[in-house]
Amino acid sequence: MTEATPADARGPRPSTIGDVAALAGVSRAAVSKVIRNAYGVSDAMRERVTAAIDELGYRPRVAARAMRGSTSTIGVQLPQLDNGFFTRILNGVMGALHDSDYHLIIAPMTDAVGGVAAIESLYDRQVDGIIAVAPAVPQEWLEGVGRRVPLVQIGQHDDPDHYDVVVGDDDLGARLVMEHLFSLGHERIAHVTNDERILVEAATDPHPRRLRVYESMMRERGLVPDVIRVAPPDADASRALDALLDRDVRPTALFAGHDALALSALRAAAERALTNAEFAIVGYDDIPLAEHPLLSLSTVDQSGEEMGATAARMLIERIRGREVALKQVFTPRLRVRASSGADHQHR
Amino acid sequence: MTEATPADARGPRPSTIGDVAALAGVSRAAVSKVIRNAYGVSDAMRERVTAAIDELGYRPRVAARAMRGSTSTIGVQLPQLDNGFFTRILNGVMGALHDSDYHLIIAPMTDAVGGVAAIESLYDRQVDGIIAVAPAVPQEWLEGVGRRVPLVQIGQHDDPDHYDVVVGDDDLGARLVMEHLFSLGHERIAHVTNDERILVEAATDPHPRRLRVYESMMRERGLVPDVIRVAPPDADASRALDALLDRDVRPTALFAGHDALALSALRAAAERALTNAEFAIVGYDDIPLAEHPLLSLSTVDQSGEEMGATAARMLIERIRGREVALKQVFTPRLRVRASSGADHQHR
DNA sequence: TTGAAAGCGCTAACAA
DNA sequence: TTGTTAGCGCTTTCAA
């Protein structure tokens, strides 16, 4: 009977750089140079070491490397994974990193205010750089992070000293939506947006910006703003939109703060068999599904992939040493589809 | 003028456990005990150390901890983030881990065959355990991983010795779909499924299983199977489904291997204004969007959240020492909606 | 209850 | 071109 301690029940101890060195009959430093493709290694040495690595199935531990320098890892903090806008961004990041030497890890937010925890988690893992996607965190706190590690933020309107910003022009985007709805003749236009509770930084968040444009453009025309606020759980959005459509006098159009809300609105409208003339809907983000002909959601394209790719490139520049903060503002484009089309039926 | 080297331009050196110890006037070991809530620390000591930690903004480095033991991290390998089924799984995992001490990191697959790279990336980071979601990797290779680190796989039908498996009963699921379509009177039923190129392990992959059930049930009734294969890029699916619907004699029903394909089919059908009597569609997975009234996709519910939560719980058991391999098979349920409803119109 | 000391796996200076 | 050596930040015996 073997005396299997828990330790070796879990298989043999993974081999280390020392094991490789011993097997190849060289020093550990030599092995290190080979695996890092460092300068000054003879072909013979490289071959022997490579053979030993293969034989042992050796893999360098990122943790040990982190102790001496870089992890070759970029961390992305993401608010939600089931939101098409954030996956567009992520796809952009992945594309830009594809032929770099960086690995990508994602830290998901576990709740609406988990941005700090997610970013700290990446920081604690000593990633070489962080991309923070729409983190609901105080700007000042983020400056602190940016002072310690290369950082790019996507989707908040701040003006930082120690990190870069990639953001859409939300004022313009909201204006495009409202002008579009006005041009269709709508006057009773409602706006659904995020509840204030999930706005840690109202000053920099895109949603209050869109709201402000909505309100001022309504007032400019002597119309009364009609704002519905929705807290995170999807059920809340459904309820709020059901209530909106069941009013005695309901709005004829809706500007939804983002496409997930717009999908809820489409559901509520569909269940009441409303036509798009009776109730037009425009969203924001242009999630991939928006163009599905059964949804055909009018929305504002924020070019998520390009935002992600740009952020990744900026981050790499920062990792390479750039110190000056950059800000890239993307110009949004309105995508008019059936949900607000001039001559379409909702369904 | 200060002599700012690149190093301190990046802010001061992050404080270490030694800095905390010095400030609190205790040993490093004492600090370590406090931050790990270890046994045998006086209240006075705890207070002094905590104060020092706060003052310095000290954060333990995961890498240094990893050198001596665990990272308190669970890694999830995910094939795609823009797929509702995988996000259901992930939400289940996150829910189950929510009040544990584990952090979660996600390694995304960068391409259809990136499963090995994603899992290796997690392994190299010394996560305490890995959840592999539908990884297209050889079973034998995965056994090797399972021997070295606690591992649970979701969504492949293998029978491993060194990791656990959570999977749906795909034979049953496919049978439910086919019986449903037969009961509606359909005979010309096509099946879209993944291209063989992305099947690294055809023996364990769910899609060939669904395909086999489809084929055998068709043949049992003397019908000719009609299989369309689609490679990863979405455009390929669109093209294939357009071609299918533009045939002189087109099928009257489609069993789509997963919901993303079903959405493509819905698009093609909508563009041709087909009713669901002319072309019924049933998918697989029950992505959250399937129940949207404008899509109303009939599909098979795999209980993604429960799968994820179960996998997370199994993994924690394994981390705690369980050695024997477990396999949990989930019973799928058919969700009949308008896309194949008996008395509904497609739109 | 607290501290001293060793060592985890790797890289970077430096020496040979 | 190769090897020796020191040390990154932490946890863990073990001793006091």
Provide structural commentary:
The structure is a homodimer of 347-residue chains. Chain A folds into three domains: 17-66, lambda repressor-like DNA-binding domains (434 Repressor (Amino-terminal Domain)), CATH 1.10.260.40; 71-168 and 304-330, 3-Layer(aba) Sandwich (Rossmann fold), CATH 3.40.50; 170-302 and 334-340, 3-Layer(aba) Sandwich (Rossmann fold). The first copy, chain A, starts with 5 loop residues before the first helix and ends in a 12-residue tail after the last strand. In chain A, helix 2 (17-24) crosses helix 3 and helix 11 crosses helix 12 (259-271). The first copy, chain A, is α/β, with parallel strands linked by helices. The longest helix of chain A is centred in the last third of the chain and has 16 residues, at 304-319. In chain A, helix 8 links the parallel strand 3 (129-133) and strand 4 (151-154). In chain A, strands 2-1-3-4-5-11 form a six-stranded parallel sheet. Chain A has a four-stranded parallel sheet with strand order 7-6-8-9, with helices on both faces. The first copy, chain A, has helices at 6-9, 17-24, 28-35, 43-56, 62-68, 84-97, 115-124, 139-148, 170-183, 206-220, 234-245, 259-271, 304-319, and strands at 73-78, 103-108, 129-133, 151-154, 164-168, 189-194, 227-230, 253-256, 280-282, 299-301, 327-330, 333-335. Residues 1-8 of chain A have low confidence and may be disordered. Chains A and B meet through helix 5, helix 6, strand 2, helix 7 and helix 12 of A and helix 5, helix 6, strand 2, helix 7 and helix 8 of B. Chain A binds a DNA duplex (16 and 16 nucleotides) through helix 3 and helix 5.
